[in-house]
């Protein structure tokens, strides 16, 4: 059976970009793959969360994974920090990860620009830690959004380099995966790029969003001054609204707004109202479920323990074999 690995950094509630870019694929993949879905809490340390914030963010992601339908009896659901083997593999991979190539990673370049006073070594070696997450289970497929493509390319580079160095074919070369053949990029509400926590609260629609907040956020989404002549091209902010509709609205509803745009009769207020209604329909079943799951500490603890045990079984086997390949021999 093919092996799947994916993780999400716990930096708060999951938004619909996370859901459609990653989690929706997790749900399908768990049916017929051996899946390892984890919470990347080591990765989140690059931003120095307080101990309280770290624990609460991890709890939220774990509860949301379960509320969305990830099944601990089908998939291995665990915390990255429960699998110390990952850090050992990270160390080995770092020995063959070069400063120049790490500095060229676009997420690093961006972070170096936006947070110049915190360009730490963990940030630079983020791709090696991510490669360790994936290679520790020797994954075939990694369900992630488009923004993670470059990280995955690095994982293949590191896997390949290890294989060449030790004249082995031990590691496979994992590939990004989505059921829609095209990697997804969900836009945010502020009219710029992809929906992202780092773009702020008003950019993100959370899957557990309160009904009134949801409506307000969408009604405030950035648009433009309207089509100036028939059949004009959509501006980026308006194209974003349509992209969000593609996720939750009926095709005929989308088509009718597209036609209204083409003949200049569109009213953005109506467009956003429609999106708010359809988004509410999508979100409402999750809202209560997330809350209940988060309160069920016993469930969270049982799932995390079971996941840790199963993840470590696979990880410790890899580390044992990697140590042999590298040449660490026991004297005792
Ligand atoms: P954020 O940018 O909000 O910090 P993360 O980087 O933690 O989100 O992303 C976690 C997962 O969700 C990754 O697999 C990523 O590819 C996916 N993802 C995040 N934002 C989007 C988006 N806007 N569109 C598609 N996928 C996304
Ligand atoms: N880098 C991913 C993100 O920001 C999170 C992540 C860490 C991950 N390790 C991974 C995703 C391994 C897939 C596989 O979203």
What's the short story on this structure?
This protein is mainly alpha-helical and about 325 residues long. It has helices at about 15-30, 50-70, 85-95, 100-105, 105-115, 120-125, 125-135, 150-165, 210-220, 235-250, 250-260, 270-295, 295-325, and strands at about 5-10, 35-40, 75-80, 140, 175.
Give the domain tally.
Answer: 2
* Global geometry: globular
Q: What's the name of the CATH homologous superfamily of the largest domain?
A: HUPs
Q: What CATH architecture label of the largest domain applies?
A: 3-Layer(aba) Sandwich
Mean pLDDT score, rounded? Answer: 95
* Helix coverage percent: 40-55%
Please give the radius of gyration in angstroms. 22 Å
User: Briefly, what CATH class of the largest domain?
Assistant: Alpha Beta
Strand content: 5-15%
Question: What structural class is derived from the secondary structure elements?
Answer: mainly alpha
Any overview of this molecule?
- With 332 residues, the protein is mainly alpha-helical.
- Helices cover 54% and strands 6% of the residues.
- The protein has 13 helices and five strands.
- The longest helix has 30 residues, at 297-326.
- The protein is globular.
- The chain starts with a strand and ends in a 6-residue tail after the last helix.
- The model has no long low-confidence stretch (mean pLDDT 95).
- The structure holds adenosine-5'-diphosphate (ADP) and tryptophan.
